[in-house]
Amino acid sequence: MARKDYSSYTARDFALDEDFQQWVLQPATRNVFWERWLEQHPEKENDVREARQLLQGISFTSFQLSSEQKDGLWEAICGGLEGEGPTPQEPTRTNWWQLWKYAAALLLGMLIAGGWYWWKAEPKNTILSSHTRLGEVKTFLLPDSSEVTLNANSRLLYASAGKQREVWIDGEAFFHVKHTASHQKFIVHTYDNVHVEVLGTQFNVNSTGKEVVVVLQQGKIQLNIEGRNTSLALQPGDIVRYNKQDGDFTKSSVNADQYVSWHTGRLVMEDYSLADAATFMQQVFGKTIIVPDTQLLKYKVSGSMPIIYNADTMLVQLEKVFRMKFNQKGDEVWIQKK
Amino acid sequence: MNTGKAVRADLKVVPSHSSLWGRLLEGDRHAFAEIYETHVDHLYHYGMHFCRDHERVNDNIQDLFQDLWLTREHLSPQVQHIRYYLISSLRRRLLRSLQRDRRWQYRDSWEGFEFEFTTPQENKLILEETAAEQKKLLQAALGNLTRRQREAIYLRFYQNLSYNEVAGIMSMQVDSVYNTISKAIAILKKNLPFPLLLLFLGR
């Protein structure tokens, strides 16, 4: 998937870009992307400022209904509906419409009193979803300002209902959860009995393989395992591996970076085996790695490299790092000694 | 080639019974009232820019909402952007009602969707006459845009509809929407640097 190269954009190009426009027009839902991008490209500040001025300068004559006109129009709408036949919930037509009128008047009063309230309340009951294809990674803000980076080939659902925020993850995601003023719980559900409960913190959940792996980078989380009545408190650097098949789990300490760095676009390799690389290529690009000489799987390297979301480039990089021969046949990659 | 990670906000609303639209389809009167309250200002604003006829706009908004309630069982549950749906519908209604009106035959010369361009705060420091002169030039340049082009600009920047949605409402190609907006931006851009430059020289 191609991404635009914004670093060569002029003010005019920015002003024409739909994504950029969205950021300027709706700063309330402002995009994590643009703020971060500006931080990384301070040299483009003038172009961006000029583009913003271009967009913000456009204004249209205002036409507004007074609140009396709005009420009047609403009454006309409801009045015109009196001829409608009774609906199942209503005992008699007349009664219902009278009630309806009072209810509408009351409701309107409430609505007008706090128009913004509805606007704010609306997302509370919405369910949102996002997904990524192979070789694709996305970062976005949830309505509560928590940030999620979704790794390749993953799906996420988000729902917020007053008391708590909930997401369902199938695949891998890194969460940076915002602590809300009302101490709203944030719960991450996997489809394999593992549920993570937090208030505000940073952690990674991966359910792609035979295990569900949860790694905590910062803060504190509580991990619940369904069916085992187990609840674990995790400290930063803790990792829990849950075996989907037999329900066994282990908890230990690791360097969290190695597990979460993908969300910043880097592959941190610390005693990184060819088997680890194979898992990565399988998860992110859907490649099947075949290594006839299983001894090679234990071959390890250390270091770090940027993740390029292009399977061919990534294979060439890994080929160099591991000093082996990679042969691609469709979605299969055969690896041999050099 | 992609050399970094793609970062874009693109959460989609899942059509579900808890969504406002879903509740309307189920006959929830509160949802109906909420949709009215949320969208009536935008609809009125659009209508007035479309034809400057308060009575006509009012009547059509009334019909639109009545039909919305009466035909709710036949509406598509797939509507994800209510404002887009309502504006498309209001536009069709206004067009139909105007086609019966003889004056509308001259619609190409009709005003509508005019927009102003105001430069940011700092430019207020510029000599008033220069600013007035500048504004006249800009308005003349913008006057070259057709009504349709202005409407596309209005839908994108005032109603915040996507390029695709603007194209859908106006039955035009996404490319034409893009070109229209490109043209307007070019006009604005040509007029923007001048006052800014003056400002710096003046200091």
Task: Describe this entry's structure for a reader.
The complex is a heterodimer of chains A (338) and B (203). Chain A is of the alpha+beta class and 338 residues long. Chain A folds into 4 domains: 51 residues, no CATH class; 31 residues; 134 residues, Jelly Rolls; 73 residues, Phage tail protein beta-alpha-beta fold (3-Layer(bab) Sandwich). Helices cover 31% and strands 33% of the residues of chain A. Chain A has a 7-stranded mixed sheet with strand order 2-5-6-8-9-12-13, with no helix packed on it. Chain A has a 7-stranded antiparallel sheet with strand order 3-4-7-10-11-14-15. The longest helix of chain A is centred in the N-terminal third of the chain and has 21 residues. Chain A starts with 10 loop residues before the first helix and ends with a strand. By secondary structure, chain B is an all-alpha fold. Chain B folds into 2 domains: 88 residues, Orthogonal Bundle (Rna Polymerase Sigma Factor, Chain: A); 82 residues, Winged helix-like DNA-binding domain superfamily/Winged helix DNA-binding domain (Arc Repressor Mutant, subunit A, Orthogonal Bundle). Chain B is built from 9 helices and 2 strands, in the order βααααβααααα. In chain B, α6 crosses α8. The longest helix of chain B is centred in the N-terminal third of the chain and has 23 residues. Chain B is elongated, with a radius of gyration of 21 Å. In chain B, 27% of the residues are buried. β1 of chain A pairs antiparallel with β2 of chain B, so a sheet runs across the interface.
